[in-house]
Design brief:
Layout (H helix, E strand, L loop, with lengths): L9 E5 L11 E5 L7 H7 L3 H4 L3 E4 L13 E6 L10 H4 L11 H16 L2 E4 L2 H10 L8 E3 L16 H10 L7 E3 L9 H9 L3 H6 L2 E4 L3 H7 L6 E4 L4 H10 L2 E4 L8 H8 L4 E3 L3 H7 L11 H11 L9 H9 L2 H4 L2 H13 L2
Parallel strand pairs: 1-2, 3-4, 4-5, 5-6, 7-8, 7-10, 8-9, 10-11
Helix pairs in contact: 6-10, 7-13
């Protein structure tokens, strides 16, 4: 956004100064505080009252408890998890995932309700998130919320089998090109990675032997799946962004069986990398990929298994499931561009 607005001074509060062009009209104030009270540390900063005179932009829904400003304020709310799972439509229907009834969800509800009155503009990353916000906080005018999609990191792009950087990462992780199913996207309960593992587990033994199930990172689902002591499962440590992009492009299939998402970055990152993705059938999947894209109900392991088996088949033409995936992947990096996102966000910040 700073590139698009050279006449505007951007004062950025962050824990570490990023590497950016010195020609940009940006000033950095370093706050050595990375906990949840980071916004409160900003407003307490000695320079804050002098610097923030016009507009305050919050790229994430973390609000200062004390709000001393008269400046116009714009905030990005990616989703309203876990608050959303505490609403009657989830609780009464038994759709609240285990572990999501938390004190944080309750406090977030009251804090959001208070802050939404103070915000001049709310940016959210999907119409799904906007609908969720309006369903819970009905006092917000519809016109106050702008939907601006996320972009795809250029690191996520199709690669050749002999790409040296990709081969180096695969060798480090002892993986083979287009010979593994890959899950990445977090380990909270709602991510539902266990259902993707159980769908893979139902594949014929000869397929599982040649195509292992790889899961990235540590947490709830890593611990749950490790209990099976399955030799066909590989646990990958945390990767750098460039390594993640390489592994995503090298996978034969990625899986994303989440129960709820405000957006779902792994879905578009996979397709941008030239790798088919098998997502759950949730509102964001339909919004981003269209209603015809192959997906499964989050709790339906049988359906996930059938689709996974079909996506792992080598046959490929426009009349089958592979054709649907190819059509969804066409020009996806142009559809979800950070440059477009920045331009739309800048417009929302500057215009009432």
């Amino acid at each position: 956004m700073a590139e698009l607005s050279p006449d505007i001074e951007w004062i950025v509060y962050c824990p570490v100064k990023p590497e950016v062009s010195t020609q940009l009209n940006m000033r950095f104030c370093i706050i050595e505080d990375t906990c949840r009270c980071f916004p409160q540390s900003i407003v307490k900063h000695s320079s804050f009252s002098d610097t923030c005179r016009d507009i305050l932009f919050l790229p994430h829904a973390e609000f200062p408890v004390i709000w001393p400003l008269q400046a116009r304020t714009v905030c990005v709310i990616h989703d309203i998890i876990p608050t959303l799972f505490l609403t009657p439509r989830f609780l009464l229907l038994g759709k609240t995932p285990p572990g999501m009834i938390t004190a944080k969800g309750i406090t977030d509800y009251f804090l959001l309700r208070k802050m939404l009155r103070r915000l001049d503009t709310v940016i959210t990353v999907s119409h799904t998130s906007k609908k969720s916000l309006l369903s819970i906080f009905s006092q917000i005018p519809d016109t106050k919320i702008k939907v601006i999609y996320n972009g795809i990191d250029p690191l996520f792009h199709p690669r050749d089998a002999d790409d040296p950087d990709t081969l180096a990462v695969l060798q480090k992780l002892n993986l083979k090109w287009k010979s593994f199913v890959f899950y990445f996207g977090g380990h909270t309960v709602r991510k539902n990675a266990g259902s993707a593992y159980m769908a893979w587990k139902r594949l014929p033994p000869e397929i599982k032997k040649s195509i292992p199930f790889c899961i990235l990172g540590k947490g709830y689902w890593e611990k749950k799946i490790k209990k099976y002591n399955d030799p066909g499962v590989k646990f990958i440590p945390v990767l750098t962004q460039s390594e993640l992009a390489a592994v995503t492009a090298a996978a034969v299939l990625t899986v994303y069986p989440s129960r709820y998402e405000g957006f779902g970055m792994p879905v578009i990152e996979s397709l941008a990398s030239g790798t088919p993705v098998l997502p759950s059938h949730i509102p964001t999947t339909t919004e981003i990929l269209g209603s015809t894209y192959p997906s499964h109900e989050p709790s339906d392991i049988s359906e996930a298994h059938v689709l996974m088996a079909m996506l792992l088949e080598k046959k490929n033409n426009d009349k089958n499931i592979h054709g649907m995936v190819q059509r969804a992947a066409e020009n996806i990096s142009e559809k979800f561009s950070w440059k477009f996102c920045a331009a739309k966000t800048l417009s929302a910040i500057l215009n009432n």
